[in-house]
């Protein structure tokens, strides 16, 4: 039988394993492991097997190993992990897509009863309906001020009742009632708290951003840069097109108001002298969908001209008849 490893040997082995993982993986999910059992953790390890490794341990040991590895390798980016190692946390080293791994971890949540003294992670609402309990159990409902009635020899809850609010501790009466009703209101699993990617640390919500979201945020940033540049008259790549257009408008306004001119201004001046040219240009630029409007307009003009021809016929002689 092999001798049992000492604490010092266990620390050395743990340091070696963590340092090896830090060398091999550049992506790490920092997860909270509150209320996660050993069997559940084993299932998570099996589900992630292939491109991910789950490592648990005491925070002091993990911090110590990270510092040692940062000193050995000279890679100070690893030290960004240390502030994240607070509470009951673990590390998931992965080479896969961070969003997919995060979604896979979320699948392994297990329902749990409301135990006395536990802080509720969500609101607990008891739905209306028949509870299946006999009338002798009404005392539980009375203590919690839950309106009930007796229907066919069983207790029936009349309206939905918010039994426990998120952040409140579960009391003995609430826990007993939920147990009698067979309600397991909470579910627990590994919860991603932070993401480490090649030295950068960010919140897991970033993983939910789509390409459209990024483009939208980028467009907002460009718009703000453009507005600021125009306001202070400072040329930037984003503001340059607007500045050129504004300069052209100013030059055009001066040309129209004075004798000064240039080719583009000549064309505008021509339009101002003969406004009918605007209609010709607009008709030429009209979309294909509006082409039906032109024949209609032509027909209308032709119809309006018809009375003049009819008036000649009605007189009974031509223009040169004697």
UniProtKB/TrEMBL annotation:
The keyword Ribonucleoprotein applies. The keyword Ribonucleoprotein applies. Ribosomal protein P0 is the functional equivalent of E.coli protein L10. Residues 114-183 form the Large ribosomal subunit protein uL10-like insertion domain. This is 60S acidic ribosomal protein P0. P0 forms a pentameric complex by interaction with dimers of P1 and P2. GO terms for biological process: cytoplasmic translation; ribosomal large subunit assembly. GO terms for cellular component: cytosolic large ribosomal subunit. GO terms for molecular function: large ribosomal subunit rRNA binding; structural constituent of ribosome. Residues 294-322 are annotated as: Disordered. Residues 304-322 have a biased composition (Acidic residues). Keywords: Ribonucleoprotein, Ribosomal protein. Belongs to the universal ribosomal protein uL10 family. Pfam families: Ribosomal_60s, Ribosomal_L10, RL10P_insert.
